[in-house]
Design a protein that fits this description.
The protein is of the alpha+beta class. It is built from 17 helices and 11 strands. The two termini are 14 Å apart. The strands form 4 sheets. It has a 4-stranded mixed sheet. Strands 1-2-3 form a 3-stranded mixed sheet. A two-stranded antiparallel ribbon has the order 4-5. The chain has 2 domains: 145 residues, CBS-domain, CATH 3.10.580.10; 145 residues, CBS-domain. The radius of gyration is 25 Å and the shape is globular. One of its GO terms (cellular component) is cytoplasm. AMPK is a heterotrimer of an alpha catalytic subunit (PRKAA1 or PRKAA2), a beta (PRKAB1 or PRKAB2) and a gamma non-catalytic subunits (PRKAG1, PRKAG2 or PRKAG3). Interacts with FNIP1 and FNIP2.
Length: 362
């Protein structure tokens, strides 16, 4: 027989208050739970280009393979070990250029003759560090945390059964998937708040900038020293004029000018100024802009004939003076922060009901 359970009004009142608090926090952290309950498989494209390079390939040919395939990274395969050992990115290209740079203009012998494996053996961190990857079944939350933890911009997705690489995950891919599904989620108050209110971004003087006359080699060194993906170019009044990003370093390979690193950043970006339909001005925002509008601008960038894929916005004031920078990494890190006490509230509700039921059982 089913025995009735008596619950006091005071206990129900407490339960409802805790439940309402839980629902409010759940709405506030809807994006956290979205990432937690969606997998990497959910955002795999139906068709995409994936480049895999053997580590015995020469570095020069490897980077030309990236340029001609219009991709920013490639997964590395070691034939001797019969396994994937790493990922080749623009950062590696920059390291090679800086390492082989000579004070006097000359040909970079190492860049043109070294193989990928020879180059990787020079860096102990790279040579002995296993490939960091994720599986299709991993949650987006787990993948995002790997990106943030290791300060990666790219994370390979590899099938754990057959060992086949499926895709290379990026911050932008994750945020775009969230943006496309935003109307299926509870309307979070975070999206209507400004960058200033949310304290999102990096602000002056922590933002590293360069001048138009800065030599390319100095810009490349700043990329490596400060582990940044772009350097705003400012004039004498600290007004934003252009943006020199890691991706622009590929133009050194396209124009075969990697032996001319004494060239100024202004001269290196001349190709941008003459092709504005494909290389538009840097995207900017105000610190009073709402988070939703910032994400929308980033997600919708690069969908036309533009060759640039925006991964950050430069924060300026109304006079176009640089104030800071907001990156996709900043936004993703903000979304995956642990919610304050959602699970605790849920357990509290269950605990109150159980205790009330047992204590008032006739």
């Amino acid at each position: 027989t089913v025995r009735p359970v008596l619950v006091s009004l005071s206990s129900l009142s407490v339960c409802f208050r805790v439940l309402l608090k839980f629902l409010a926090e759940l709405k506030q952290n809807a994006f956290f739970y979205f990432f937690k309950h969606h997998t990497c498989y959910d955002l795999l494209p139906a068709s995409a280009k994936l480049v895999i390079l053997d580590t015995e390939l020469r570095i020069k040919k490897a980077f030309y393979a990236l340029v001609f395939n219009n991709v920013r990274s490639a997964i590395l395969w070691d034939s001797s070990q019969q396994t994937f050992v790493g990922i080749l990115t623009i950062t590696d290209f920059i390291k090679v250029l800086v390492n082989n740079f000579k004070p006097k203009p000359c040909r970079m012998g190492g860049f043109e003759t070294e193989t990928i494996s020879e180059w990787r053996s020079l860096d102990p961190k790279t040579a002995h560090h296993p490939l960091v990857y994720t599986s299709p079944e991993s949650s987006l939350l787990e993948a995002a945390r790997l990106l943030i933890k290791h300060r990666f911009h790219r994370l390979p997705i590899i099938d754990p059964v057959f060992g086949n690489p499926l895709h290379i995950l990026t911050h932008k891919r994750i945020l775009k998937y969230l943006y496309l599904n935003r109307y299926k989620l509870p309307q979070s108050t975070q999206m209507s708040q400004t960058l200033d209110e949310l304290r999102l971004g990096t602000y002056v003087p922590s933002v590293h900038v360069i001048r138009p006359e800065t030599p390319i080699i100095d810009a490349l060194r700043l990329f490596l020293i400060h582990n940044v993906s772009c350097l705003p170019v400012v004039d004498a009044n600290n007004r934003l004029t252009e943006l020199y990003a890691k991706f622009d370093v590929f133009n050194l390979a396209v124009t075969r000018s990697y032996n001319e690193l004494h060239m100024s950043v202004h001269d290196a970006l001349a190709f941008h100024r003459h092709n504005r339909e494909r290389y538009p001005q840097p995207l900017t925002c105000l610190k009073t802009d709402k988070l939703e509008s910032v994400i929308e601008r980033v997600v919708k960038s690069g969908v036309s004939l533009c060759f640039t894929h925006v991964h950050r916005l430069i924060i300026v004031d109304k006079q176009h003076l640089i104030e800071g920078l907001i990156s996709l990494s900043d936004i993703l890190k903000f979304f995956i922060s642990d919610p304050p006490s959602n699970e605790l509230a849920s357990q509290t509700v269950s605990g109150l009901i159980v205790r009330s039921s047992s204590s008032l059982r006739p």
